[in-house]
Amino acid sequence: MSSSRPETLTPADPSPAEAGEARGTALPERRFSPPLTLLQVAPLAAVLIVFLLLPMVVLVVVSFFDYDSVQIIPAFEFTNYVDVLTSSVTWRTYLNTLRYTVIVWAVTAVLGFTIAYVLAFEIRSRVTQMVLFLVCTVPFLTSNIIRMISWIPFLGREGLLNSILIKLGVIHEPLEFLLFSDFAVVLAYTHLYALFMVTPIFNTMMRIDRRLLEAALDGGAGWWRTVIEVILPLSKSGITIGSIFVVTMVMGDFITVRLMSGGQSASVGLMISSQIASLQYPAACANAVVLLAIVLLMIAAMLRIVDIRKEL
Questions:
Q1: Which terminus of the chain, N or C, has fewer Cβ atoms within 10 Å?
Q2: What whole-number distance in Å separates Cα of residue 39 and Cα of residue 11?
Q3: Strand, coil or helix: what is 107?
């Protein structure tokens, strides 16, 4: 005879909350109350309000004021904006600034992508990558003005470059366009802001799965096709971030144009600086508001083309 034993029922494992209640210590719920959340957000909100929102509000308010040679007159007038939008000189200055921005963006994008590609894919050693990347940052240990002035003895009429070319017989007289020209302005901008394009592209390329490149090569894609169809699309977020940096800094810069063009070119930043020096604060605020609107539209267009949140 086979003896049948009753089946023993094993209770289900209690949940952590039930186990805590059984021990008399209930686990606290991890929920943030509204007052605590507000306290956590308050420091950052206060900084943004004091250092970003309030200056913007003051800028917009003063842009509607009137002024004369000695004082600012509180009023609500559109005279400053009418002067900005109807002056042919102002339009040429904005177009010249946009021209500088587009040229510098194109040059830094090509240069930044090339340098980032070499650092990310051609240099195999991580130590060598970091050393070369740090070498790119060495010029940033000095002031922008010092770096710009250092081009003058190199590009001048009797500078080092012209002297070498004349001695080699390449040219018979000094090249005039090297200094105090649009070429010098673009060169200085590229020197100053190229790293802001290299860094985000390099960081994006370092996150690319190398197996994708191997799969592309195994599938018969050549080097050029791999770069165009694999690396470039996966680097869009880095290119966009670098483009935002370069565009915003070139649009707002004024000292580079003043030093490297020799006073022969103008930019919006230089125009605003001149208006501030002449105590024309409402006119300068109006130009600053228009410039800010243009920059925000350019950034919105770039973010419209590439959604950084999805790419990251």
A1: N
A2: 44
A3: helix
Are residues 272 and 256 in contact, defined by beta-carbon separation less than 8 angstroms? Answer: no
Domains located in the chain, CATH noted: 88-311 (1.10.3720.10)
pLDDT of residue 204: 93
DSSP state of 66: E
Cα 174 to chain centroid distance, Å, stands at 36
Residues 66-81: pLDDT tens digits? 998 778 889 889 999 9
Q: Do the Cβ atoms of 201 and 112 come closer than 8 Å?
A: yes
Residue 73 sits at φ, ψ, to 5 deg, of: -105, 110
Q: Residue-wise over 33-45: b if at least 16 C-beta within 10 A, else e?
A: eeeeeeeeeeeee
Residue with tokens 């719920």: 29
The neighbour count for residue 93, using CB atoms within 10 Å, is: 20
pTM, full prediction: 0.82
Short-list 130, 101, 100, 145, CA closest to 247: 101
CA distance 287 to 271: 9
Q: Average pLDDT, stretch 257-280? A: 89
- Report d(CA 105, CA 236) in Å as an integer: 15
Query: Quick one: which of 12, 231, 270 has its CA closest to 120?
Result: 231
Residue 311, Cβ density class (10 Å: 0-12 exposed, 13-18 middle, ≥19 buried): middle
Distance from chain centroid for Cα 88: 30
| CA Rg value for the chain | 30
pLDDT at 155 over 60: yes
| 15-40: pLDDT as tens digits | 544 555 445 555 455 555 667 888 88
